[in-house]
Amino acid sequence: MAGIKLKNIRKSYQVEDRNVPVLNGIDLDIPQGQITVILGQSGCGKTTLLRLTGGLEAADSGEVLWEGNHKTAFVFQEPRLMPWLTVWDNVVFGLNKEKIQALIGTVGLSGFEKAYPSQLSGGMKQRTAIARALAYEPDFIMMDEPFAALDYFTREQMQKELLRVQKVKHSNILFVTHSIDEALILGDRIVVIEKGLVKKVYPVETPAEERNLLNDGFISLKRDIINNLNFMN
Fold first, then answer.
1. pLDDT of 155-168, one tens digit each?
2. DSSP class of residue 137?
3. What are phi and psi of 47, to 5 degrees?
4. Which of 11, 28, 3, 64 is nearest to 193 (CA)?
5. Which strands, in side-by-side order, build the sheet including 173-177?
6. Which residues lie below 8 Å from residue 105, measured CB to CB, with a gap of 6+?
7. pTM for the whole structure
8. In Å, how far from its chain's centre is CA 226?
9. What single-letter DSSP state applies at residue 210?
10. Which site among 7, 47, 76, 147 is 20 to 30 Å from 107 CA-CA?
11. 156: Cα separation from own chain's centroid
12. Does an H or E element contain 193, and which?
């Protein structure tokens, strides 16, 4: 399967005099051309898994195997923009300026190229962060709960925006969230993590634009995910 293959990934952290295991033998295939969502409670290891896959940290043992190139870009919960730079300069910061105008249009920010982060809404800041990630032309975009700090309506809008951009750019995305609804809206595959292990993988066959979380099929799927997570979202 083209993409990324994780084999028996283990990771622990030293906390004072204790060794705290976080990932306990993860085996996972992450295909190209899709949005793979890592879903789980806080502390289950999902962000650690994202950072290890993207190369920000090293595993204690196991392998992260890439098919082809492995250039990654990250979008975090905080936009992490340079406050002294405009939208345009944040996107092109350290990168080739070709195609940047098209990218800014792709994320819906045409007309705001000269605006500074302090002049942008939360959703617009995250659009800028996504455009910056796309400008790097990565093989995979790693997204760590990028919409968690947004209000409900802005979050819903950004989810739709991400789906639109992914369809246009055919981006490969690994997306971390603790929201079951967000996973169902975005994910082509939903990987449930519990206690540092992959508990279950759910393929979502329904095209994103046709998903209705209130229909019987999605209600049943959500119920099954809740049962596997052992908590209410």
1. 898 898 899 888 88
2. -
3. -70, -40
4. 28
5. 72-75, 140-144, 173-177, 35-39, 189-194, 197-203
6. none
7. 0.89
8. 20
9. G
10. 47
11. 15
12. strand 189-194
Regions of the chain where pLDDT drops below 70? 1-2, 94-96, 230-233
Give alpha helix (H) positions in the chain.
Answer: 46-54, 87-92, 100-106, 122-135, 152-169, 180-186, 216-229
CB 92 within 8 A of CB 135: yes
φ and ψ of 15, to 5 deg: -120, 105
Whole-number pLDDT of residue 1: 45
DSSP 180: H
- By residue count, the chain amounts to 233
Find out whether 138 and 173 touch, Cβ atoms under 8 Å: no
- In eight-state DSSP terms, residue 53 is H
In 3D space, the residue among 40, 45, 43, 41 whose CA is nearest the CA of residue 25 turns out to be 45
Tokens of 66: 């890439």
Q: What tokens appear for 218 in the block?
A: 């999605």
Integer angstrom CA distances of residue 104 from 25, 50, 164, 171: 40, 26, 14, 16
